[in-house]
């Protein structure tokens, strides 16, 4: 990709991601909640992840401007291009970008876990234990990943050396393989837990995509709600696909340890693509608030347009979950308090004796019947 095209695409993506992230945090700030610590953890993780993303975008844009300002001939070979553009400064920034990439991925996972912990009091014991297991798995994979990247090349300054002793984890296939494996494995674990909030799963091992089919098949959804459910699930699995594509780019680029300018730029670009898709997957479901205010919607997947406070499920794209063998609708004590206050303020109904009655002003939610 030409440097000017890279700059335009990266800046547009960075602006879009900043807007989506700011909107997501704004929506979260205007919600009643019981566990403020979980909310602050979510907000901190998402904000730090955005900073990591912007840093890698900045490295890609800076390197593209650098290539333009050097006025290098268009027919220059990759070896000559690398000799002119790859120096210790670029290697240090590239090394920091690899660390930021790891932090970004696991900060986003941490933001999801913070949301799950906020509503964990409504989980059955089996789901709560699974949440603990997923949390430990995410933490362990993060620690192993970071230690491996810092200890791969010793002494440490070899990561930005330009001599024959140069060694950097960013182009090492074993490190990229482990990062991709841990990233995809933790995403699958998180998506499986996300599915557990819909329906109690048997202990039989099933395919990941089959889980989502079971979920959609278990809900009584109309056409619009079915589309919303499939969309929410699809953007979650897009992050797994993006991670696999990035690993494919890293493998084809560095299988011969060819850390050329073109290969490093390709890796930077596809890293930003993956990170952008992850941010979109996290923030885009919040945009349903605009659709509800414009058109109005209700149901298991969405929030009620008649009530400004969102259901627990809406926090993570779910409106209901199953507990035990019966179907229940997830409702928080906060929602019930606000519902009661709303009814007492707006009640104008009259009984036969002339007294006010506020009964049955709140329409029942949709029930989910297990098959």
Describe the fold and architecture.
This protein is mainly α. The protein has a single domain, classed as Rhopdopsin 7-helix transmembrane proteins (Up-down Bundle). A two-stranded antiparallel ribbon has the order 1-2. The longest helix is centred in the first third of the chain and has 34 residues. The protein starts with a helix and ends in a 25-residue tail after the last helix. The C terminus is likely disordered.
Topology diagram in text:
Layout: H1 3-29, H2 36-69, H3 78-85, H4 88-118, H5 125-151, H6 173-196, H7 208-218, H8 223-254, H9 261-283, H10 288-294, E1 321-323, E2 326-328, H11 333-346
Number of domains: 1
Helix content: 55-70%
Number of helices: 11
Number of strands: 2
Relative strand content = under 5%
Question: What is the molecular shape?
Answer: globular
CATH architecture: Up-down Bundle
> How would you write the strand order of the largest sheet?
1-2
Rg: 24 Å
Average pLDDT number: 67
Structural category is: mainly alpha
What is the string of SSEs from the N terminus onward? HHHHHHHHHHEEH
What would the keywords be for this entry?
2 strands; transmembrane; Rhopdopsin 7-helix transmembrane proteins; mainly alpha; membrane
Summarize the structure.
The protein is an all-alpha fold. The protein has a single domain, classed as Rhopdopsin 7-helix transmembrane proteins, CATH 1.20.1070. It contains 11 helices and 2 strands, in the order H-H-H-H-H-H-H-H-H-H-E-E-H.
């Amino acid at each position: 990709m030409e440097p000017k095209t890279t700059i335009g695409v990266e800046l547009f993506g960075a602006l879009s991601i900043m807007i989506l992230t700011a909107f997501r945090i704004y929506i979260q700030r205007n919600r009643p909640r019981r566990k403020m610590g979980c909310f602050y953890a979510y907000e901190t993780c998402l904000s730090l992840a955005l900073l990591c993303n912007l840093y890698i975008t900045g490295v890609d844009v800076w390197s593209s401007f650098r290539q333009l300002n050097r006025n290098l001939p268009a027919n220059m070979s990759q070896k000559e291009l690398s000799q002119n553009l790859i120096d210790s400064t670029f290697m240090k920034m590239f090394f920091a970008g690899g660390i930021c990439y790891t932090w970004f991925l696991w900060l986003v996972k941490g933001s999801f876990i913070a949301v799950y912990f906020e509503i964990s009091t409504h989980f059955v014991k089996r789901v709560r234990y699974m949440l603990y297991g997923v949390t430990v798995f995410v933490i362990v994979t993060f620690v192993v990943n970071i230690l491996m990247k810092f200890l791969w090349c010793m002494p440490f300054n070899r990561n930005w050396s330009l001599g024959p002793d140069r060694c950097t984890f960013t182009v090492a296939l074993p490190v990229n393989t482990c990062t991709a494996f841990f990233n995809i494995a933790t995403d699958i674990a998180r998506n499986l837990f996300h599915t557990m909030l819909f329906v109690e799963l048997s202990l039989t091992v099933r395919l990941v995509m089959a889980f989502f089919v079971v979920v959609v098949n278990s809900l009584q959804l109309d056409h619009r709600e079915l589309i919303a459910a499939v969309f929410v699930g699809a953007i979650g699995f897009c992050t797994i696909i993006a991670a696999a594509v990035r690993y494919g780019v890293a493998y084809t680029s560095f299988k011969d340890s060819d850390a050329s300018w073109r290969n490093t730029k390709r890796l930077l670009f596809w890293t930003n693509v993956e990170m952008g898709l992850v941010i979109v997957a996290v923030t885009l479901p919040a945009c349903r608030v605009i659709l509800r205010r414009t058109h109005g919607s209700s149901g298991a997947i969405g929030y009620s347009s008649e009530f400004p406070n969102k259901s627990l499920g809406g926090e993570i794209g779910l409106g209901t979950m199953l507990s035990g063998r019966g179907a229940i609708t997830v409702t928080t004590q906060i929602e019930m308090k606000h519902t009661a206050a709303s009814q007492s303020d707006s009640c104008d109904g009259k009984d036969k004796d002339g007294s006010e009655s506020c009964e049955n002003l709140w329409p029942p939610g949709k029930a989910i019947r297990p098959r």
